[in-house]
Amino acid sequence: MCLYLLFLLCSLEKNSLSSEFSSLLSNTLTSRGHERLFNIAFVFTVETGFIPISLEEQFNSTDSNIKLAKTIKSQPLNSFWYKNNENFHAELVMSNQLCHLIGVSINGSLIITLIHSNISKCINFEDDEIISSENIKNLFDLSLKYKNLVSVPVKCAIMEITIGQYPSLCGVPEELISYILTKLKPPDLYSLMLSCKKMYHIVINNQLIWKKCVIEEVDKLPGTPRLPNHISDWRLCYYELNRTIKCNRKVVERVRDY
User: Fold this and answer.
1) Which of 2, 28, 186, 191 is most buried per CB count within 10 Å?
2) How does DSSP classify residue 132?
3) What are the alphabetically sorted keywords of the record (predicted)?
């Protein structure tokens, strides 16, 4: 069972990367060495909502980053940054604030730093972390690590300065939201669905999460109950299963009272 849940989690992570950014990331695989690593960091940063300075007039940080990905995909990635010796530099904008993405080559590593006037965050990309197109799981892990340690903290600091508050959960990259969902219990999922329309659709349409909930409930039942072969709506299945379990408990309690 644990292996099966692990499979579900991996499938969720694999499917959580948007097709546009997956396609854009595949373009990074055509480069080599540290240039490849910097391209990957650049794409992760853009996916978080940072805008290349050359596209500042066409986009802002609240626009769809999917449209931004399509625009970037139409141009060579190295046209958005420049290289000086073995160091890389890209200028990006977040909420009208200029930021610098810098990659410094040290031996076999590339130190990636995202800098704003009031904050800077860095991460070390090793050569052996170069991602192959066949291993999307490693790409997700690297994306999650980079955003947790670098791009999202810088984004939060800038948003706090410019609008006086941290961005909401809706502003977090979707693969992070999907990962958060795996840690929530069904009552929390229902509460999140009530928070806003976007969260409602993200939660209700995530069949893998609800399938996981159904399997966990079935495992608690006595015997070895079998699920139907074809279930199109796992959330509805969970709802019906949970309602049936509660009804049976009430019947048992009434019998005991007699």
Assistant:
1) 28
2) P
3) Signal
